[in-house]
Amino acid sequence: MEITKASPLTGKPNTMDLAITFDQLIEYNKGEKLIQDIFPNLNADEREFMMTGYTPQDWDNMFPPETKST
Q1: What are the start-end ranges of the H helices in the chain?
Q2: Per the count of CB atoms within 10 A, which of 34, 41, 47, 59 is most buried?
Q3: Contact at 8 Å (CB) between 13 and 6?
Q4: Has residue 48 got a pLDDT over 80?
């Protein structure tokens, strides 16, 4: 199922094709269970996107990996 959310960082819409069902989405929107219990098949990045709209690229832009200087 394609899920589109606006990035809180950029304001731009992003879409992820997630392996979820409509019933799971309804259950999630009730807010009664933990996201990892509703979507056990999603990875951490996919669950983060569902909760906040942040993508892995947003996280990399906010917290760039440290570079080693020699």
Answers
A1: 22-30, 35-38, 44-52, 56-62
A2: 47
A3: yes
A4: yes
